[in-house]
Amino acid sequence: MKSSFFYPVDRSQAYTVIKINMMAGRKPETIKKLIKTLFTQIERNIGIAPIDIEITFKEQPDYCWGFRGMIGDEAKDLSYSVKV
Fold first, then answer.
1. Which InterPro entries match (predicted)?
2. Which end of the chain has fewer CB atoms at under 10 Å, N or C?
3. In a domain, 83, yes or no
4. Which residues, 6 or more positions from 72, have their beta carbon under 8 angstroms from its beta carbon?
5. By CB neighbour count within 10 A (0-12 exposed, 13-18 middle, 19+ buried), where does 40 fall?
């Protein structure tokens, strides 16, 4: 419900919070590049200004993930690299 959502006083009603959970392993430069890209692409494609966007990353060790019936640190067939 819109009336129960807290907007910081210097933000518009477009204020958006993005939370990303991922396996640990990416370099700070990789995460920074993703954050900058998200700011740019969201403004360009959706029209929400960066001042109205808050992005938070939470990384967990791979053994804290479970998918496709296995534990993250046991998955050897990922089509992407976590250590980038």
1. Tauto_MSAD, Tautomerase/MIF_sf
2. N
3. no
4. 23, 61, 62, 63, 64, 65, 66
5. exposed
Q: Which two tokens stand for residue 60?
A: 């967990």
Is the model's pTM score more than 0.85? no
Contacts of 84 (CB under 8 A, 6+ apart): 25, 26, 27, 30
Residue 33 lies in a domain: yes
Q: What is the dihedral of CA 79, 17, 5, 3, to 10 degrees?
A: -90
Contact between 66 and 72 under an 8 Å Cβ cutoff? The reply is: yes
The answer to the question of residue 56 being in a domain is yes
Residue 66 lies in a domain: yes
Condensed to tens digits (0 to 9), the pLDDT of residues 8-25 reads 888 988 999 999 999 999
Q: Name, in order, each residue with C-beta under 8 angstroms of 38's C-beta and a sequence gap of 6 or more.
A: 18, 53, 55
